[in-house]
Amino acid sequence: MKRYICLTLIVLLILSAVSGCAKGHGETETEPAGATSEDSVTEAETDDPAYTPELPELSFPDETFTFLVQHDPCFRHLYDVEAEEDSSDIVMSSVFRRNAAIKDKYGVTIAAVKDGSAPSMAKNAFKANDDTYNAVWLKVDDFFSLSIEGAFYDYGDVPYVDTSKKYWDQGVVRDFTYGGKLYGLMGDISTSVSIFTHLLVVDSTLASSLDVDVRELYKTVSEGKWTLDRFYDLLKSCSAYNDSNGNSKRDGTDTFAFAVPPDMLWSLTAAAGEKWVVKDGEDYYTVAPLSERLQRVIEDVIDIGNDKYTTIATWNVGAVPGVSDTYNYTIRTKFAEGTALFTDTDLGVVLEARNDKDGDFGILPEPKYDDSQDHYSTYAFPFYPLLSIPVSVKGDKLSMTGFIIEALAAESYKTLTPAFYEKALSSKYVRDEYSFEMLNIILRSRIYDPLYFYNWGGSFRDSLTNMLTSNKKTLSSFYAKGSKALNKSLVKVYEKFVSR
């Protein structure tokens, strides 16, 4: 709570200055809601040891720390590793200042080799015992492929890295630890996973015309009462559907309550706190049992996704005059033009599309499944990277690597994270005090299901998507067969991991 208040104050003070016309390994818990700029906090309270690195006074004069970065501009990630000069962009400016602070304090220059072939480059370095790269950033599926081959250190063996610190994403620590080993990390050190984090965006102008009080929705979230039933009831009752072109036909140009991609299946399942792949008693991945609750979740999501007078979906949008890419039209253009009350998308899409939007909007977490669920949970689209240390890095270089990674993560918590919050919220429209609270809930409650980032079980994931897009509630019969193929894949991973 102390950290939440501290960061709230930082961002609210920044927003107040920038936009004077503002409208005013264990289970990860969502930060408590409700802190505002009126909360008092002492300097001692902000000095939370959970966010303070326990590093000795060391220096590495004239050393260079080199990241190998999987560069893929199509997927909006890993632009915040290094910056050669200061920038007018607040995030890149914070990266420049963070790296400069590390150099000033420890003598180390941060450098990056950015290449789309980084997975093969990392693999070749591993086989050749080459220590050119101190650390590598690989997209999650490529990371996992190399991690089970033994290419990376378990962070428990890396000096100075303390994965219990809260500038490391504790959801990553919990969900990516496999057999007691953790080979990849994410946290305040990069905003990449935040870019891919799913949320609901709500069009405030359309909401007002439909007598939907967005601030009441914020209050419902804060009180822990934002559930799938309440959300669906709202979609059905708000009368958002409008035959915008007057042709008496449902088509993609009409106005709808909800605009969705197929990923709504994953985002709403994760929001319910459900996973397809879980941990067994020995910390290895296994197939989740098909509980009655999981089956209800999937059936309810299928109902929402195929309710043709509340929901416009990328699989049923049909032909739209003058539009060739109806997928992006559904989750970007309809948000920008104000013809969808809610859109299920990720934060990166919101940041990119908001410049084209002519109206006010707000952000909300995906709803819990029901009131019995303790915490909000959030899905991240699996193009985010994880940070790993090659096993070819040894001795003093390994010690320096662990030290600098920890220092960068802690410094990012003070510089990069507040800058990203400011950039996310200080747009022309999203800048009220409630939006910060919503964003904090969204970004601090992620859960990670291995099924999403590694297509175990062959067509298991695709078959689930087909149930949604074909409006078929056949989970029970599919699971009996599909879970066997999934389990065989998990056993092969286990055997490779323990035998290497």
Structural summary, described in words:
The chain has 500 residues and is α/β, with parallel strands linked by helices. The protein folds into 2 domains: 2-194 and 384-443, 3-Layer(aba) Sandwich (D-Maltodextrin-Binding Protein, domain 2); 198-379 and 455-499, Periplasmic binding protein-like II (D-Maltodextrin-Binding Protein, domain 2), CATH 3.40.190. Helices cover 43% and strands 11% of the residues. It contains 20 helices and 11 strands. The strands form 3 sheets. It has a 5-stranded mixed sheet with strand order 8-5-9-4-10, with helices on both faces. The protein has a 4-stranded mixed sheet with strand order 2-1-3-11. Helix 1 (2-18) packs across helix 16, helix 1 crosses helix 17 (433-443) and helix 9 (214-222) packs across helix 17 (433-443). The longest helix is centred in the C-terminal third of the chain and has 25 residues, at 475-499.
Provide a compact summary of the structure.
With 500 residues, this protein is of the alpha/beta class.
* Secondary structure category: alpha/beta
Unreliable parts:
1-45
Helix content: 40-55%
At the first level of CATH, what is the class of the largest domain?
Alpha Beta
- In round numbers, the mean pLDDT is 88
Major sheet:
5 strands, mixed
Question: Could you tell me how far the N terminus lies from the C terminus, measured between alpha carbons in angstroms?
Answer: 43 Å
Rg measurement, Å? 23 Å
Please, what is the CATH homologous superfamily of the largest domain? Periplasmic binding protein-like II
CATH fold category name of the largest domain: D-Maltodextrin-Binding Protein, domain 2
- Described by the principal axes of the CA atoms, the overall outline is globular
Strand segment count: 11
CATH architecture of the largest domain: 3-Layer(aba) Sandwich
